[in-house]
Amino acid sequence: MPNKNKKEKVSQEPPKAGKSGKSSKDVQDNLDMEVASKKSSSTVVPATQIAKIKTPPVQPVVKKEKRQSSSRFNLANNRELQKLLALKDVPPGEQEKLFIQKLRQCCVLFDFVSDPLSDLKWKEVKRAALSEMVEYITHNRNVITEPIYPEVVHMFAVNMFRTLPPSSNPTGAEFDPEEDEPTLEAAWPHLQLLELFDSEDPRERDFLKTTLHRIYGKFLGLRAYIRKQINNIFYRFIYETEHHNGIAELLEILGSIINGFALPLKEEHKIFLLKVLLPLHKVKSLSVYHPQLAYCVVQFLEKDSTLTEPVVMALLKYWPKTHSPKEVMFLNELEEILDVIEPSEFVKVMEPLFRQLAKCVSSPHFQVAERALYYWNNEYIMSLISDNAAKILPIMFPSLYRNSKTHWNKTIHGLIYNALKLFMEMNQKLFDDCTQQFKAEKVKEKLKMKEREEAWVKIENLAKSNPQKRNSPSGSEQ
Predict the structure, then answer these.
(1) Can you tell me the distance from the alpha carbon of 314 to that of 337, in angstroms, rounded to the nearest whole number?
(2) Which of 10, 165, 355, 385 is most buried, judging by how many CB atoms fall within 10 Å of its CB?
(3) pLDDT tens-digit profile of 50-104?
(4) CA angle 158, 160, 163 (to 5 degrees)
(5) 426, 386 in Cβ contact below 8 A?
(6) What number of other Cβ atoms are within 10 A of residue 399's Cβ?
(7) Could you tell me which residues belong to the region Disordered (predicted)?
(8) Distances (CA, A) of 459 to 450, 452, 465
């Protein structure tokens, strides 16, 4: 349509041009050249538009396809399996031999990624055999005889101990369990018995968590070794890679292990808390495993209250400066610690602790300020504050009073009013003293500011009256 309108306008122009003294032939020639140039320019534009239209399909979105991956297996050449008789359908004397045959069948590996539709019949035979053997062992006693043990171990080794695939996002943003879909193992129908913790498939990690916990409970001689290997995983995670998929599951196991520690705690266990668990707070992916980590820390403090001071001071050391969601997590954990803290231990940490809380109350991020002010809704924490109000109120009052007037969020105003009201009810005289002291400090600040401004005015006047100013090369006489 635009080209058609232009042509219509052009066709109306020759009479006007004729009046200016040019011949109709010259005008027509000029118009023909103009139309031709417009046609040529109009043919170039669609070409660029076509190129732009073709560009997006070249970059397909493949992120969802990455959500399914498979480990590195060495596939067998002959993958045809014969469906054997069911164990319940053969005489008891032949069940052991048939069980071994099924175990050997299950040592055959299949491809679940590059060609997932291949060998469907044989894949189903293997899956059914695995399920049948698990059910057989569950419902019958003394079925795993001495000849079966090496076959079982070999089948486990072939299927389970494998090279995991590269992480789908090794250096990118951390995994968000609420937003991101977990990466699932394509060969899962054949892998439900024992897995590796660094697998991205949560089903694998869940089974391994149960298995390792049972091994820890049954084999007393392996307990120290298991704890040492878990420590090594944590050290590598904290100081080298900052990437491991099974930290939450390992901490969950440790939570139950810590719960069973005998008293008094061994020095080895205290070192584990201070050198392993507490540094886990500084990793950027803390949100993935923070509930399990906080539970472990609280378990230690319930076992030994003397660890409270080093734990709280370590949290204050690792306190996030620019990551508000992480700061909210620290506040959550700190409240859990205060719920189990002994009054004698609270006295040791209350001053640095409430200096940090005062900063949180002053935070422009309303969730941080809100979470800190919720401490005043906790009855046990309020009893601790009431017993030590003479130390705590002077620390908290300036932040509370200032933000009651200047904070942008109205919800924060209400929470601050509630905190100030509780302080007033605790000790009216102390509250009045803090109010007067705060106002006196404000007056001093105004006087200092006025003196500073007057000093700058004097400096400017001296500079203007300085005779060298006129004689300086850069100066200009008025």
Answers:
(1) 13
(2) 385
(3) 444 444 444 444 444 444 544 555 555 556 777 888 888 888 888 888 888 888 8
(4) 95
(5) yes
(6) 22
(7) 1-48
(8) 14, 11, 10
Predicted local confidence at residue 396, as pLDDT: 92
| pLDDT tens, position by position, 244-253 | 888 988 999 9
Instruction: Write down the mean pLDDT value for the chain.
Output: 78
Contact 195, 204 (CB under 8 A): yes
pLDDT exceeds cutoff 80 at 310: yes
Token pair 């043990």 is found at 149
Nearest alpha carbon to residue 125 among 111, 107, 109, 105? 105
Q: Of residues 475 and 395, which shows the higher confidence score?
A: 395
Is the CA virtual torsion 118, 122, 128, 134 positive or negative? negative
**Residue 107 pLDDT:** 83
The band of 196, judged by pLDDT with boundaries at 50, 70 and 90, is low
pLDDT digits (tens, 9 = 90+) for 388-443: 999 999 999 999 999 988 888 989 999 999 999 999 998 899 889 988 888 888 88
Could you identify the residue written with the tokens 């109350």?
Answer: 361
C-alpha span between 71 and 163 (Å, rounded):
6
What the block records as the tokens of 364 is: 């422009």
Rounded Cα gap, residues 362 and 402, in angstroms? 8
- 164: CB partners within 8 A, 6+ apart: 71, 72, 196, 198, 199
C-alpha 396/C-alpha 135 separation (Å) is 63
**DSSP 3-state of 80:** coil
Amino acid at 263: L
Q: What is the pLDDT of residue 14?
A: 40
Tell me the HSE value of 314 on the side-chain side, using a 13 A CA sphere: 18
Contact 160/195 with Cβ under 8 angstroms?
yes
**What is d(CA 311, CA 334) in angstroms, rounded to the nearest whole number?**
10
d(CA 238, CA 234): 6
Token pair for 190: 């054949």
Q: How many CB atoms lie within 10 A of CB 210?
A: 12
Block residue for tokens 């005289």:
429
CA distance 128 to 124: 6
| Cis before 264? omega within 30 | yes
Contact 288, 252 (CB under 8 A): no
Residue 290: C-alpha distances to residues 69, 297, 307, 362 (Å): 27, 10, 20, 25
Give the residue-averaged pLDDT of 314-340: 95
Overall pTM surpassing 0.70 (yes/no): no
Q: CA 442: distance to chain centroid?
A: 42
C-alpha–C-alpha distance, residues 354 and 339, integer Å: 15
